[in-house]
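ok so for the tutorial part 2 we go from a plain amino acid sequence to predicted structure tokens. step 1 is just haveing the sequence, like this:
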Amino acid sequence: MQPTSPSAADYVKSARAGIESIEHIDDLIREYLLFRGFKDTLKALEEDLKGDHDKGFHAEKIVDELLGMATSLDIDGLLEYWQYLSYRFFSHLSPKYHRTTRMFEKRLIRLFLVSAVVADKRQSIRQFMDKHGKTLGQQGGDWVPWLGLEYVDEPSARPEFEAHFTEDWRTSLRTALTDFIQTVFPAMAVPRIMLFDKDRREREALQRRLKIYEEQLNGETKIKALELSSGGSSALVEDHIGGVAVVRSPNLKPAATEPTSDSIAAIDQSLGVIQTDEPSSILKISQEDVFLEHNSGISLAKFSATGALIASYDDDSILKIWSPDLASTAPKLKNELDFTVTAMAWDKKHVHLLYLYDEDGHLHTLNTNTNLMSCQLLLERKHPWIQSLQASSASSTLLTVSSAKPEATSDLLVHIWDANANKTMVSKRLSSTSESHGVCAALNHNGNLAALAYNNGQVRLLDTRSLETVASINTKQRGLCSAEFSLDEDSLMVVTETGGLTQWSLRKESQMTAESSLNMGASAGAADNAAVAADARLDYERVAFTPDRESIVIAPRCQCLVFNVDSAALTDTMRRHKDLVSCVDFVVDRSLSASEDGTIRVARYRKV
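step 2 — the prediction. this is what the tokens look like for a chain of 608 residues:
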């Protein structure tokens, strides 16, 4: 077995180290130019550095410039500088972050408007609205009240404006924008001189090779359950996972299986097992409909637990609750929200409750029967970036996973929230020495076991009653973007950004029981998965397993593909959207795909 080569994560580490040392690199270049006698070139370099729009890649200085322009009412300079940053940096990000950049632009404009009110220079508001008011009015949503800000007496006392006049809001904007910009720099293609830590990466590659050789000599590494915080005893609890034969088809590559002496300890005797002996079947689309519920790009869409309702949220902050069945008598709801929703989940037990998580860490509960909404502050401000929001199938509890930075998930905060009691049951901060740039989560059938799959290939299994780590799996796969428990909960299935599908035993650490590849080439426009373009790479919102775990729906780019899990065979495809698919979902016998073109496609399936 050959060690893995330096990965994208290694490149990001090197790029970040180079960016943080940019002043040192500038000094080296000055020294080199002097050594060569290139005085005119050195003079030109010094002139360029004086007008450096990148501020030496110091996110704090860039944010200071932006906030300074907003508070000094230099709106033209602010918009021009933001456009420069968009072309220079933000264009290198994944399309899923486009909404984040638009959100920060909106906040900076509102800081300018608030500053004009505080400075009693409302003519600046009038001039801005004369120039840009029509564009903002076409966006609708929560911009509508702001169009009349100039004529509002004491807007700081009005509920739609008051939060923006507080120092906490400004501090939150500065912190979040600084963290966001700091994550953007390493995503750029940097010159080789900035990748100066080559020796470090080579040393890490040698360490990985040594670790692989040690594992080969040792034969295996045993998973040991940690002490459960509730029990305080080191005794292992009874193994709840029943044996099941692994179904392998000619297209699956069974992993090497070596005998192991220890099995993973169970989380609790009460977990139970859902057994099935049904043979694998093929899923085919029997009906497909397209719905034009929105006038702007859709960022989130979810089925209710029964599939009777769909909640969809767009870029204009409009939330709709509606039924895909034309004969349904369920009332249709439309709400223009004054906050930005970053995650959404339906209650699995009380099907009329919808949970909305906003950008400031608040959890909103919408009763779709009455259209009344309540709000609770769920997370502390040090971890504002939601990574996953999961509802338990057995109770009205929620699992939230958030991070301190949008793409840096080695520092996480995990919450178990009791929606009935409106309180946190347990929370814990999880830190990792290895850097990760994303994490997804899955709950088992009764919510007592959670799996956190990190982008860097690590998987944690948590007891949700104590949030203690009871086991871990090292998949050695980069780009994990989705995870799901098998129906009998004997194994965990994980999907990578490029369509890799593997199954891992929960009884034997790091033992792969099956491996296959979902061929995304036809939709992604690539000859093989290794060449999948950035906008075609999968993320958590664009992967959905069927309830029986026999099929999986994925959406690279503009189309949904349906695969059989056992054979990795493409069984059907949905019609294409005109723009990128932002999210997919599957419940009972139907799936949905929502797109940035504002459409939602709903397909019904039959088994053959």
